[in-house]
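User: Hey, my collaborator sent me this sequence without any context and asked if I could get a structure. I don't really work with proteins. Can you help?
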Amino acid sequence: MKHIKLLLLTMAMGLASQWARSQTCEAKFSPNSNYPNIQVTTRFLNQSSATSLTHVKYIWNFGDGNTSTYWNARDVSHHYTSVGTYNVCLQVIDSLANCSDTYCDSIYIAAKNDSTLNKCYTSISWSPSKVEEKTISFMDHSVNFNSDATYLWRFGDGDTSHTQYAEHTFATYGAKTITLIVSDSVCTDSTTQTVNVSGQNCYISLYPVIHDSCKVIYISKSVIYALESKIKWTMSDGATDYGRSITHHFTRDGTFIVHAEINDSASGCFTSYTDSIAITGCDTLGNDTCLTWIGGTISRDSLPTSNAVVYLIAKDSNYLSVIDSTYTDSSGYYLFQAPCDSYLVKCALLPSDSGYAYYLPTYYRSALQWSHAKFIRANNSVLHRDIEMTGGNNNGGPGFIGGDVTQGANKKDKPLPHIQITILDENMLAVSYTYSNNKGQFEIPNLALGKYLLFVDIPGLKSEGTWITLSKAQPRVEDVKVEINSNDVSTSIGGVYVAKLLDLQVFPNPANSTIKVMAPIESGTVQVTDLSGKTYINQRITQNAVLDISALANGAYIIKVWTKDADQPASGHYLFMK
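Assistant: No problem. I've predicted the 3D structure and written it out in structure-token form, which is a compact way to encode the shape of the chain:
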């Protein structure tokens, strides 16, 4: 098994390396502070470019002994405490494209009373506050003003404000002209910006993916996914297109402007984004390399989350292996580049996220187990795959489930850390999850009394879960034993193995008039209930059954299959939609 995993990883890395040898990365930045001095924070704009968006490290050296390292192309700020000239360097390391580049530039940091400095500089930023009420929050970022500074906001509709930070509700959607005038006893400065007031929190940003020197795939990001088909693209070479992502072939070298915009009066979304790209040469990769891009937004409660890790899991025959991982960016977006193949994508919140304890690790198509997840069949294209994380519903109570995770076979009782343990309620709805600690121990406290299904999710391994009942007489079950073997996961309580979890196959899902159930048993019982437990179908099953569900109303239902075989009792649940 280890040899198969190594071969898969070697093949993947080999294809990636073959592609990467023809790629380059470039480090570049520029200061974004008009009057850098020791009284203010100096901001540097990261203008670097790299082939891969998920394997790039940015190392900043500010020339005063301080450094910073980031895994995304963010702008950075630094506060200098002494007057002088500093040599600032940015190193870009693209591990996937196997390239590195360093750019350095000098910056003079003056004292605040230096005669070469202008006395003041005004700048602003804004963000939606109450989008359904057309309310925008405005922030002042002005520098070099004295403590007696006064502020005058003009919102373009006759209204004004005299606070440093303002919030304003507009009467209509659309573009608004905003002006801020800041004055103190010796200096006055102003800035005027155009702000789009939208009925929804919508925005666009662009990511270029360079396939070869002349072919560029552009990916846009927008919070309002329903409007993706309405994104209009305009290239400075005269080309136009529509959609969330486009592929464009440039026919000559040069620097080109790419503009994407949404103008949708129905939703009140008016937003745009402009980017530039330098095209040099037209060297192609050749016809023997197939690469894919898989990306999307990770959300919880329909809101993007920036605190998630995302795993790319490759399929090779019946074996699965995590071959890459990345973190979501500030808008909840992730992106992988990989050889064309079949993949699973799984995400999990980071411990720093406020919802870490409540949202379970989730696969694409909202599955909690790899065996129920949807494989992504990737070809030479950009695939957009969003994931809405599944939230747990734990009402709390005196219940407790705990135990140990160990490695089986010849390494019996060796504790295994960081193994995911998940529990569902008797309606197969998510409740909670945890990970085993360094001693292989796990615990899930504060559970309501009731019946729970406990299982382990390890991609590629069949998981034999177990049903656990917490009652007034026995509110705590502390001796769950989970054993990880080379091909499967077995579960027992107090060393006694309990009902095996059946691997059911149910299709189609959603279903209309009939649904087929396939179960790996000689004979047993199949039952269909709604989420309240009301039974609609109860009949025998021998390996498979076709159920007539034409009389059922539209909604969610649970298929339950069980056998009372004395040698190997087993049961399985499956949630389907009609």
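In plain terms: Residues 1-22, 283-288 have pLDDT under 50 and may be disordered. You can pass these tokens on to your collaborator as they are.
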